[in-house]
Design goal:
By secondary structure, this protein is of the alpha/beta class. Helix content is 40%, strand content 17%. It binds NADP nicotinamide-adenine-dinucleotide phosphate (NAP). NADP nicotinamide-adenine-dinucleotide phosphate binds next to loops.
Length: 415
């Protein structure tokens, strides 16, 4: 075990393990958490009460999480003069499964974004975002309940790799000259230049995770979302690698939409249908034919846009959870930011981090705990006593604080 200077390792907990592609969870797992900045402490205080109540309800004291606070962001900078101590990365790696609140991105300074750093350093290559509707919430579309999808967004490559140069910089000019002289490609003088790397390895491991998820949950289809009509060798290759992987590794349990359209034989009647859509068309598809989609696998930038748009469609970011997952290591997180103007007001919606916790319990294979949390949220929303963001979209509702909403979720779980 690594030694920790700032964090305290709970004496009453054990490590989560990882064998043959699955986590193994002891009855008292040590779970590191990062409270988060701004409204982070408000939502974490509420969320951890919900998590402990759900575990207690299901396991009646036989199992219990040993929470371990680790430090990052403003709290860490104020206390230890370090935005992201090495020991925090060590803990997230050593204890495998963790959860975090939102973190401020320091402006200027050495670190671009703490979140991007965490994903890259820990190689959390899949950003998983389930998007579904909760009955009773106001939504901008007529039939929000038809949308029920899980987006697998590649998390380490694409234009998010951070390989870019400022317009007019010596590096950009050098690259422009190289492209012209060596490869015969002209870029306008004085341009900023960014690089979009997408590899077979990076694409296939993401799509593999998405296919496994779809098969495990009996999903009807998996859609590869790409912009391959324009970016043929990056986004187009993502699509081709997806079909190739499905055919070569999962041929017995998948078939393609185009084969089916031609009247071809599927290996099984319940085969997972692999299809693909161009990214721009996918935005209108999710609005017009949401019921046709279940699991989506897509490169980094498409996934970023698509997941926020889908979350808005069912009622907003306050209800949108996420998980950043690699091989045997995962960090679950609220998908919104620190909402600093509401810090310490006990006001904002804690559901994003609570739903991320439900994802985490699913990942730990404490499925009943995840279900209890979902039931609690569904019941609490039906009572119409909700935080301000939901209240303003729900006629006849009463606005309550973050902590009171958490009380409602706990009561709903016990109902
Ligand atoms: P933000 O913190 O997500 O907040 C923007 C607005 O979204 C809020 O003012 C609020 O809107 C609404 N909102 C967000 N979370 C909510 C919740 N739980 N309940 C109800 N409403 C919620 O975005 P930002 O102001 O652009 O970013 C602030 C900081 O967060 C920045 O430093 C940014 O870098 C960081 N950030 C961190 C993460 C992360 O850690 N994963 C992600 C994104 C941004 P209304 O005022 O209209 O109600």
């Amino acid at each position: 075990m690594a030694s920790y200077k700032y964090a305290r390792v709970p004496a009453n907990g054990e490590h989560v393990g990882y064998e043959n592609g699955r986590v193994t969870t002891p009855s008292n797992p040590i779970i590191p958490f990062i409270e988060g900045d701004g409204t982070g402490p408000d939502i974490w205080r509420a969320a951890v009460r919900v998590f402990d109540a759900a575990v207690e309800k299901i396991y009646a004291g036989e199992r219990k999480v040993a929470w371990m606070e680790v430090f990052a962001g403003e709290k860490s900078f104020k206390q230890f003069n370090d935005w992201l101590p090495q020991e925090t990365l060590d803990a997230l790696r050593e204890f495998r499964v963790s959860i975090k609140g939102p973190l401020t991105t320091p402006v200027g300074g050495g670190i671009r974004s703490l979140n991007v750093t965490l994903r890259q350093v820990l190689d959390l290559y899949a950003c998983i975002r389930p998007v579904r509707y909760f009955e009773g919430i106001g939504a901008p579309v007529r039939e929000p309940r038809k949308l029920d999808i899980v987006i697998f967004r590649e998390n380490t490559e694409d234009v998010y790799a951070g390989i870019e140069w400022k317009a007019g910089s010596a590096e950009a000019e050098k690259l422009r000259e190289f492209l012209s002289a060596e490869l015969g490609k002209e870029v306008r003088e004085g341009s900023a230049i960014g690089i979009k790397p997408m590899s077979e390895f990076g694409s296939k491991r993401l799509i593999d995770m998405a296919i496994l998820h779809a098969l495990k949950h009996g999903s009807s289809s998996l859609t590869l979302v790409h912009k391959g009509n324009i970016m043929k060798f990056t986004e187009g290759a993502f699509r081709d690698w997806g079909y190739e992987l499905a055919r070569e590794k999962y041929g017995d349990s998948t078939c393609t939409e185009s084969d089916m359209a031609k009247g071809g034989d599927c290996a099984r009647a319940d085969a997972l249908v692999i299809k693909d859509r161009i990214a721009d068309s996918m935005f209108q598809q999710l609005l017009l034919r949401p019921e046709d989609y279940t699991v989506i696998a897509t490169p980094n930038l498409n996934g970023d846009y698509l997941s926020d748009a889908a979350a808005a469609q069912v009622g907003g970011l306050g209800m949108a959870p996420g998980g950043n997952v690699g091989d045997g290591i995962a960090v679950f997180e609220a998908t919104h930011g620190t909402a600093p103007k509401y810090a310490d007001l006990d006001k904002i919606n804690p559901c994003s981090v609570i739903l991320s916790g439900a994802m985490m319990f699913d990942y730990l294979e404490w499925d009943d705990v995840a279900r209890a949390i979902m039931n609690g949220i569904e019941t609490a929303i039906k009572t119409k006593r909700v935080t301000y963001d939901l209240a303003r979209q729900m006629p006849g509702s009463t606005e309550v604080s973050t902590s009171a909403f958490a009380d409602g979720i706990i009561a709903g779980m016990r109902a």
